[in-house]
Input
Amino acid sequence: MLYRAQATLGLILAMATLALCSPANAEDAALAVGAPCKNEGSIACSSPEGISPIFKTCVNGVVVERSCPAGTVCFGKVGEIYCDYTPSMTIN
Output
């Protein structure tokens, strides 16, 4: 039960953090990590949705990688992402 509460809290915090980011455009989403970017706060999953916990965001004009909380993966479209469990994952 404690694990479920911790995982839920981590997911809520990650989603709240992601919600503060401004929308991205396809141009910044396609850039490599470390490349300059134009749209501060733009955000996108690094892999097709539901595959990886890694997402990219534009911070201080540079593309950086971030990660979803443990056990979750990145879902969504460019600028509208969230971290969640895949349908095959269960919490006991």
